Amino acid sequence: MEKVYQWPKLMYDRKMTYCPGCTHGIAHRLIAEVMEELDIADRVIGVCGIGCSYFGAYVQMDMIGAAHGRAPATACGLKACRPEDIVITYQGDGDCSSIGAAETLHAAGRGDKTTTIMINNGVYGMTGGQKSPTTLLEHKTTTTQDGRQAERDGYPIRQVEILAAVPGSHYVARGALNNPANIKKAKEYIRNAVQAQMDNKGYNFVELLSTCPTNWGLSPKESLDRVTDEMIPYFPLGEKIVNGEQV
């Protein structure tokens, strides 16, 4: 019988502590699979921000924990010291596009030969459920209990579209983890972003739309539906920059 799926060898065989319905685990698996398929596990260094620091507990790779939002800056230093290694940052939307907005933007501006994976669940999922830069209008959080209002709270930031306008960006894409077809496509985007770094190309960025059932106050099924019905229309999927050119 042909084996069509197996547990990635680069993931620890342990129970995850994420909430039921959280899709962080899917993102972990995709990254582990890409590293295995590209045979680069022995030269990958991961950099995590505060909220996403659990990544290193599940994927077997060298890991560094950066201060909140500073993962791109840390990755820049690592790549300068160890240009032969593959440096990947794994960050949340708050970490990457709020407190770390400047670091992310300037990493792209410099054309850093690194790769960023941003998990966008529209909330500070692991640090209290507060509004993040990507929280959609009318969505309730602990700091917008009546829903996000544009006049008071501003508009949700589309990080991919911003980075797609920066000349140093080499590969920029947005995927989603809400159904098998989109998960398959998300893996392709991750692979492309890592391969570009292996080819010594400029800054590479992949955003993955994810769920946060606990902070959203929804069931796992309802959370997947929210990604489909509400997040994807505002954050359109697809490749935005390939080989430094807009597509």
Give the gist of this structure.
This protein has 10 helices and 8 strands.
Question: Can you characterise this structure?
Answer:
By secondary structure, the protein is α/β, with parallel strands linked by helices. The chain has a single domain (24-246), classed as 3-Layer(aba) Sandwich (Rossmann fold). It is built from ten helices and eight strands. It has helices spanning 24-38, 55-58, 71-81, 93-99, 101-110, 150-153, 159-163, 180-198, 213-216, 220-234; strands at residues 44-48, 62-65, 86-92, 115-120, 169-176, 203-209, 238-242, 245-246. Strands 2-1-3-4-6-5-7-8 form an eight-stranded mixed sheet, sandwiched between helices. A hairpin with a 2-residue loop joins β7 and β8 (245-246). α1 (24-38) crosses α8 (180-198) and α4 crosses α5. The longest helix is centred in the C-terminal third of the chain and has 19 residues, at 180-198. The chain starts with 23 loop residues before the first helix and ends with a strand.
Examine the coordinates and then state which fold CATH places here, giving the name of the CATH topology: Rossmann fold
CATH homology superfamily name: Thiamin diphosphate (ThDP)-binding fold, Pyr/PP domains
Strand content: 15-25%
Please state how the strands of the largest beta sheet are arranged side by side.
Answer: 2-1-3-4-6-5-7-8
How many structurally independent domains?
Answer: 1
Task: Assign the CATH class.
Answer: Alpha Beta
Question: How much helix is in the residues?
Answer: 25-40%
List the total number of helices.
Answer: 10
Main β-sheet description: 8 strands, mixed
User: Rough shape?
Assistant: globular
Instruction: State the secondary-structure class.
Output: alpha/beta
Give the termini distance in whole angstroms. Answer: 41 Å
- Poorly predicted runs are none
Roughly how many Å is the radius of gyration? 17 Å
Q: What's the β-strand tally?
A: 8
> From the coordinates shown, what is the CATH architecture?
3-Layer(aba) Sandwich
Order of helices and strands: HEHEHEHHEHHEHEHHEE
Overall pLDDT metric: 94
